[in-house]
Amino acid sequence: SYDLTQPPSVSVSPGQTATITCSIKNFGNKYVCWYQLKAGQSPVLVIYQSNKRPSGVPERFSGSISGNIVTLIISGTQPVDEADYFCQAWDTTTVVFGGGTRLTVL
Amino acid sequence: EVKLVESGGGLVKPGGSLRLSCVGSGFNFKIAWMNWVRRAPGKGLEWIGRIRSRSDGGATVYAGSVKGRFTISRDDSKNTLYLQLNNLENEDTAVYYCSSDLSASGRFDYWGRGALLNVSA
Fold this sequence. Notes:
Largest sheet of chain A: 6 strands, mixed
Number of strands of chain A: 10
Strand content of chain B: over 45%
Helix content of chain A: under 10%
Shape of chain A: globular
Structural class of chain A: mainly beta
Distance between the termini of chain B: 40 Å
Helix content of chain B: under 10%
Oligomer: heterodimer
Order of helices and strands of chain B: EEEEEEEEEEE
Distance between the termini of chain A: 36 Å
Order of helices and strands of chain A: EEEEEEEEEE
Radius of gyration of chain A: 13 Å
């Protein structure tokens, strides 16, 4: 079965770099997306195809991939980045989300 | 400006039915693949299903947890996506989001703010 595994929580100090990992199991397609979700708001796509940033997303958001690990990197983390982050992968028959990571900026 | 607005949520008894709607604007709705995703209280995101654009065949595909109970459809003349939920269970309580995939590439470009469904006796 497909599986995307994320750490439940990550903490970072303001101005530091936050890294959130997503371990991919059994997906041949490594094109992972990342979404930011804040309470009461619409989810926002922040990274697609593992390392591409949509227009309008701050440059401090980036992504990398190494083997079966895809990483969301937030450089110079700001308090406004505190949110839940989900990785996501897909194929022609299914879409799978990781369990989500709560990013705390303190 | 791209907008997706869900409606139709509410309180439903177990075994009941409900239809959610999602109206899209600011983009070419008819060519978008559209998805429903939900988030139960205290849980993560769960993909429910997808409908392709009519030009790509209009096929639907569902997550195993809802297959046979939920049905996705679309009315491109109204820029509206639907989710018919039948035989509801307590575990279906969640915020339901619609999302657009504008390039048929598996990425969810835009999302609505969600509609809350509470299944409870």
